[in-house]
Write a structure and sequence with these properties.
- By secondary structure, the chain is of the alpha+beta class.
- Helix content is 30%, strand content 33%.
- The chain starts with a strand and ends in a 5-residue tail after the last strand.
- A four-stranded antiparallel beta sheet has the order 2-3-1-4, with helices on one face.
């Protein structure tokens, strides 16, 4: 099992929601309106408007490859918007 952690600009929320509906992971958690410092410093303020959303999903290896492919497809489709994904091996669920 793997954890797939996805961070994206809130403007891509509809695209990511559609992606999750399409792939139907068994378990995931989504956080809206998180702040962070990236290339464009979206911090949700009047100086740095915009925020990020995040998703963390528990996936099987074959699901990770599908999600990675879809993330890469979205990055190509929306090159001006930030979308990042990380995978981590999940050793244990408590």
């Amino acid at each position: 099992m793997f954890l797939f952690f996805l961070v994206y600009e809130e403007v891509l929320d509809g695209e990511v929601s559609s992606l999750l509906d399409k792939l139907k992971p068994d378990r995931y958690i989504k956080w809206d309106k998180v702040t962070g410092e990236w290339k464009e410093k979206h911090m949700g303020t009047h100086i740095w408007p915009g925020e990020y959303n995040t998703v963390v999903a528990m996936l099987k290896e074959e699901e990770v490859e599908k999600l990675k492919g879809e993330v890469l497809r979205l990055r190509k489709k929306f090159p001006a918007d930030e979308l990042w994904g990380w995978t981590v091996i999940l050793n244990e669920v408590i």
